[in-house]
Amino acid sequence: MNPILSFVIILIGIYGLAVSTNIIKSVFCVTIIEAGLILLFLNLGQYEGGLIPIMEALGIEIVDPIPQALMITTIVIGSTITSLALMISIKIFHITGSIEWKDFIKRK
Amino acid sequence: MLKRLRTVTPLIKYLLIILLGLVLTMFIISFADYQTIYNNISRLFYQTNGFFDTGSRNIVTAIYLDYRLFDSLFEAGILLVAVTGIGWISQHDDEQENAHFMLDKYKTPELFITFSRLVYPIMLLFGLYIVLNGHNSPGGGFQGGAVIASALLILFYIDLKKSTNMKAILTIEKWLFISLIIISVISLFTRGELFTNFIPLDGNADLKSIYLIALNIIIGAKVALGLTAVFIAFLKEGR
Asked: Do B142 and A4 touch (CB under 8 A)?
């Protein structure tokens, strides 16, 4: 059930990207997609009774550490990409005077 | 083209919802038996070999600093490029004080400043603890770097007259990235393969942790400085 829920979050983000007319809202939708992706990946390696991947004693049963290691990098990259997008949208606001997609496209 | 872009008609919205529902049903059908496709070979490999190969009790740290160090190198590169781009896009001026605009408009409450002074050293110590024990306990360079960055951001509220040099931060970031590459290439001469631990494979676990601690410190410093630079850029832009 949990992977389906996180995929629903990703689809909500895609719908928002398609519909939103505001640049800031588009950036938020990218963040929502990223959150759903992180949830999806973290759910993949889980199973009942699995411990966190820290070998404090030998022979304990751990969950799959690969998705967690991938998602650590995703979180850091996602935060920087979001801030880069927000900085570009600030620049667009300084140039065009609004943060609507239609004004930005019309200017060209 | 422009007319169509200006307003998204309700018909297109309904069509989009139907399309996304179709994608969702495809996902549910293909994910129904993922437990049988998803095998636990990699999990069992890391469970048995992870500690002996890398000397790290935290298997996640073992993966992003030893098995898949290539990923982390490119991740650090993306961080460097993104922070440099943010610094380049925002027209910053080195002489100006950072938090001047905060002081003018919002007047930071006295209570917040007092409690920040109490919390600041504890947060810094906690971040350093997370970075230094990344190979033994939950944590590592990325998480500890984020904690240290939030501690440094509190410093801007305490000391409103503080001004930082953005160019110096970017220069330190570049040198940290170069040292990250150099440390990970040393293993070519001691072990004969690129991008792993430079201590030989049959070495002691305590000896192997030297490499892990060094890389965790470098990555932590990179993340902390990068997030601080992003915050400074936004502070200067928001005037």
From this structure: no
The pTM (predicted TM-score) of the whole model is 0.86
CA dist., res. B141 & res. B83, Å (int): 17
Chain A residues within an 8 Å CB radius of B85: 84
**Single-letter amino acid, residue A77:** I
Residues 6+ apart with CB under 8 A from A76: B75, B79, B142, B146, B223
Using CB atoms, which residue from A45, A66, A87 is nearest to B86? A87
Tell me how far apart the alpha carbons of residues B121 and B111 are, in angstroms, rounded to a whole number: 17
ipTM: 0.85
Q: Could A73 and B142 be called an inter-chain contact, meaning their C-beta atoms sit closer than 8 Å? A: yes
CB contact under 8 A, A69 and B64: yes
B225 within 8 A of B169, measured Cβ to Cβ: yes
Identity of the residue numbered B50: G
- Please name the residues in contact with B58: beta carbons below 8 A apart, sequence gap of 6 or more: A53, A54, B134, B135, B136, B137, B138, B139, B140
Return all residues near B195 (Cβ < 8 A) that are at least 6 apart. B69, B70, B73, B184, B185, B187
- The alpha carbon of residue B139 is apart from the nearest alpha carbon of chain A, in Å, by 10
B111-157 pLDDT tens trace = 888 888 899 999 999 999 999 998 888 888 899 999 999 998 888 77
The Cα angle at residue B49 between residues B48 and B53, in degrees rounded to 5: 155
What are B44's strand-pairing partners?
Answer: none
